[in-house]
Amino acid sequence: MILIIDDDMAVQASLLLLFENAGYTAMAASNQQEAMELLHRHPVSLVILDLNFSIDTSGEEGIALLQQLRQFNRDVPVILLTGWGTIQLAVQGMKLGANDFINKPWDNEYLLQSVQTLLQLQEKPEKKHNRKELDSLYQLRFIIGEEESMLELLDTVGRVAATDAPVLITGESGTGKELIAEAIHQNSLRHNKAFVKVNLGGISTSLFESEMFGHIRGAFTDAKTDRTGRFELAHKGTIFLDEIGDLDLSSQVKLLRVLQDRTYEVLGSSRTKTVDMRVVCGTNKNLDSMVAAGTFREDLFYRINLISIHLPPLRERPTDIPLLVQFFIGNLKEIYNRPQLTVTREAMKWLQQLPWPGNIRQLKNLVERSVLMSRKDNLDMEDFRIQPELPAAKKGTVQLPQVGALTLEEIEVLMIKKALDFHRNKISKAAESLGLTRSSLYRRLDKYNIPYDETSD
């Protein structure tokens, strides 16, 4: 049973008809007293609450009723209906226990998606599954792990994938957030549509609208052809917004508009487009702290954070390290045509004791480098421990630092600076040696505030 709380009879009638046509049972209340009476008399599974459900337009009565609802029932999902003018009020409501907020005038399909998602998330798993059972239920074959924390995480991934809930994936760099995002897509009803990955940390403020919304020819000086934006590419599919914590405040506002209304305008065009997509975000930053510091919008945080999945660092899952090593070795056997490759038990134990600040990505790099540097097929502890310098680089290339010596961002900055220095600030040559396009290199130069001379190219 869905309970609608709004004093507007037209809103009540519209929502009652919408839910009836969708196969739900619904009832309506016009005031606080009616709402609480219905809650006491009927098993309500979800509440739709207009924050301005009375003549008073301050929203205070709506907030007060939400608090009363939560005292009566902590678990029943609550969706707030609000206008753009009361977004901050909706954020206050989220802090008090509301599950979602939707702008008026609402989109029927989007509202039904939110209702279906919250009702599905209320269903509790019957039992804990082992890895074999999880693999039979979901498509998870590229995610390696049997630690209890990982099994619980994968079970959550499989269950939330079936909904359209926005998911925020957190965890240190190199823990596999992109793989989890792709698993959510592959196990969703959108699996046969596009999965679009966007590294927001690599998009400068000036290019954000062009990259995300697209542009038409002539929209700005360098717009020589039309460009399809990432949101349009993700229509009917899933978009993965990685490194969302790196997005500047002005771009956060533009992103929030799309996530709120599911509409956007192509740069250079006044025509509004509608997009239907599942949104999954990833970050290695503490967004709660950023919200408190004012560097990440609170309303955007609540919009992307209906479901939160935290990936544990590799040092907290030591029993998964041998599984990961064997997986990497299995791939390297084929790549380098060395079918006899193995790792000794002592080496495995030693690898399990390392702190792995770079997590799975660092482990993968170390295993591959050790295979390349050792002529033995049975790799022991010394093969992993001894990290000789790389062979002399060919002319026009840049040598890599040792594995684990720097963070990924520090390595990227170092590589870019060395490439620019080697090629005497010629952007096209430096980009080619780094395996980047000119525009990709320019984005990184802006991101890391690396000075460059545009006239030298």
Automatic annotation (TrEMBL):
<keyword id="KW-0804">Transcription</keyword>
<dbReference type="InterPro" id="IPR025944">
    <property type="entry name" value="Sigma_54_int_dom_CS"/>
</dbReference>
<dbReference type="InterPro" id="IPR025943">
    <property type="entry name" value="Sigma_54_int_dom_ATP-bd_2"/>
</dbReference>
<feature type="modified residue" description="4-aspartylphosphate">
    <location>
        <position position="50"/>
    </location>
</feature>
<protein>
    <submittedName>
        <fullName>Two component, sigma54 specific, transcriptional regulator, Fis family</fullName>
    </submittedName>
</protein>
<dbReference type="InterPro" id="IPR002078">
    <property type="entry name" value="Sigma_54_int"/>
</dbReference>
<dbReference type="InterPro" id="IPR001789">
    <property type="entry name" value="Sig_transdc_resp-reg_receiver"/>
</dbReference>
<dbReference type="GO" id="GO:0000160">
    <property type="term" value="P:phosphorelay signal transduction system"/>
</dbReference>
<dbReference type="Pfam" id="PF02954">
    <property type="entry name" value="HTH_8"/>
</dbReference>
<dbReference type="GO" id="GO:0005524">
    <property type="term" value="F:ATP binding"/>
</dbReference>
<dbReference type="GO" id="GO:0043565">
    <property type="term" value="F:sequence-specific DNA binding"/>
</dbReference>
<dbReference type="InterPro" id="IPR009057">
    <property type="entry name" value="Homeodomain-like_sf"/>
</dbReference>
<keyword id="KW-0805">Transcription regulation</keyword>
<dbReference type="InterPro" id="IPR025662">
    <property type="entry name" value="Sigma_54_int_dom_ATP-bd_1"/>
</dbReference>
<keyword id="KW-0597">Phosphoprotein</keyword>
<dbReference type="Pfam" id="PF00072">
    <property type="entry name" value="Response_reg"/>
</dbReference>
<keyword id="KW-0067">ATP-binding</keyword>
<dbReference type="InterPro" id="IPR002197">
    <property type="entry name" value="HTH_Fis"/>
</dbReference>
<feature type="domain" description="Response regulatory">
    <location>
        <begin position="1"/>
        <end position="119"/>
    </location>
</feature>
<keyword id="KW-0547">Nucleotide-binding</keyword>
<dbReference type="InterPro" id="IPR058031">
    <property type="entry name" value="AAA_lid_NorR"/>
</dbReference>
<feature type="domain" description="Sigma-54 factor interaction">
    <location>
        <begin position="143"/>
        <end position="372"/>
    </location>
</feature>
<keyword id="KW-0238">DNA-binding</keyword>
<dbReference type="InterPro" id="IPR027417">
    <property type="entry name" value="P-loop_NTPase"/>
</dbReference>
<dbReference type="GO" id="GO:0006355">
    <property type="term" value="P:regulation of DNA-templated transcription"/>
</dbReference>
<dbReference type="Pfam" id="PF25601">
    <property type="entry name" value="AAA_lid_14"/>
</dbReference>
<dbReference type="InterPro" id="IPR011006">
    <property type="entry name" value="CheY-like_superfamily"/>
</dbReference>
<dbReference type="Pfam" id="PF00158">
    <property type="entry name" value="Sigma54_activat"/>
</dbReference>
<dbReference type="InterPro" id="IPR003593">
    <property type="entry name" value="AAA+_ATPase"/>
</dbReference>
